[in-house]
Specification:
- This protein is mainly α.
- The chain folds into two domains: 1-46, no CATH class; 47-178.
- Helix content is 92%, strand content 0%.
- It is built from three helices and no strands.
- It has helices spanning 7-16, 21-45, 49-179.
- Helix 1 (7-16) crosses helix 2 (21-45).
- Belongs to the CCDC90 family.
- It is found in: Mitochondrion membrane.
- It comes from Prunella himalayana.
Length: 180
């Protein structure tokens, strides 16, 4: 193992700071042991290039297997989706046909109901027209009767008036003759 610092320079530095040579060597020796222990721990967790290449090849092999599985799965899923899509399309066509039939039925029912209502309205209008015509006839008859009765009363009044006038004239002439 190589150390990346100068142990002798560290011993000299410690001696300058007041340590004895023996104390400085013990401290540097302890530091070297600690660094070696730490490096051993680090090296245990590290892999070599060969191990890394082997692991990379294993991962690539695993990825290739997963890729093949995905392609197979995609093809099977695609065919399943295609069959499901076909099934849904057929169901949709059936529903569309049912809706079209239902719309046609409702349209026919509405047309029939509308025609029935039209005929009822026409019949009602015809009944109203007949009733109105009858009422007009009755009114015309009553008016004609009233006119006839009015003319009759008018003639009667004229007769009575003429009779009264002639009676008054006769009486006046009678008085006139009597006085003359």
């Amino acid at each position: 193992r190589r150390l990346y610092f100068d142990t002798h320079a560290l011993v000299c530095l410690l001696e300058e700071k007041g340590f004895t040579t023996q104390q400085s060597e013990v401290i540097v020796s302890a530091l070297v042991k600690i660094m070696n222990t730490n490096l051993d721990m680090i090296y245990k967790d590290m892999v070599t290039k060969v191990q890394q290449e082997i692991a990379l090849q294993q991962v690539m092999s695993h990825i290739a297997g997963v890729k093949k599985d995905m392609i197979i799965l995609e093809k099977s899923e695609f065919s399943a989706l295609r069959s499901e899509n076909e099934k849904i399309r057929l169901e949709l066509q059936q529903i569309k046909k049912q809706v079209t039939d239902e719309i046609t039925k409702v349209h026919a029912d509405n047309k029939l109901s509308l025609n029935l209502e039209k005929s009822r309205v026409k019949e009602l209008h015809a009944q109203q027209d007949r009733a109105l015509t009858q009422t007009d006839r009755k009114i015309d008859t009553e008016v004609a009767d009233l006119k006839t009765m009015l003319e009759s009363h008018k003639l009667d009044n004229i007769k009575y008036l003429a009779g009264s006038v002639f009676t008054c004239l006769t009486v006046a002439l009678g008085f006139y003759r009597l006085w003359i």
